[in-house]
Each structure stands twice: as C-alpha cells, then as structure tokens.
Write a structure and sequence with these properties.
Layout lengths: L2 H38 L13 H13 L3 H13 L32
Amino acid sequence: MNYNNHSAMGIAAGGVIAIVVISLVIFIAYLWAYVNIIRRTGYSGWWVLIGLVPIANIVMFFVFAFKEWPIQRELRALRAQAGGGYGGGQYPGGPGGQYPQGPQGGPYGGYPGQ
C-alpha cells in the first residue's frame, strides 16, 4: 500500500472542495448584486432567474435595456405632478431656463471666488 498516493488524493480532494466553495460564494455574491440592481429599477428580484433560461435570457436582456422601467414611469409622474416636467421648473430645460440667483449673484447662491 502506497501512503503517498492516498495523501496526494486527499490534498487534491481538498483543493477541489475549496474551489467549489469559493465558486459558490462568488456566484451567490453576483446573484445578490443582480437582484439588488433589478429591484432598484422597480422590477421584482425574481426576474434574475430568467438568466438561467437559454433563449429567453437574451430576449429579456433587450427588453430590460430598451423598455421604460417602472422607476422611470414613477419619476416622470412625480415630476409631472410637481408641474416641472423633466426640466424641474425654473432650472435649465424647464420654463424660464434659468438657475436661481443667490445673494452673491451666482447660480445656487454663488460660490466663494465667483
């Protein structure tokens, strides 16, 4: 019986287990990050599972890329409710197109040295 062969197999098995554990930790970290990103856009985090479906993952990638996100719809509605549209009222892009003037005459109240 060769003991060197058994110890080499044990070291190899330990290395494989370590690689599997590290890979699993990295996979879970990426999955958690993707769920966070999807949830911030206004969609359910469960949409991350579509990445496991071969053709649907490509289709949904383009749908998510070019469709208006729920968070964008909500922001547009809130801005319209505030009466400023996308420009925010008195700021550039909105009616008037001017920044508010501060006591020193500069935009937003002026900065030292302006």
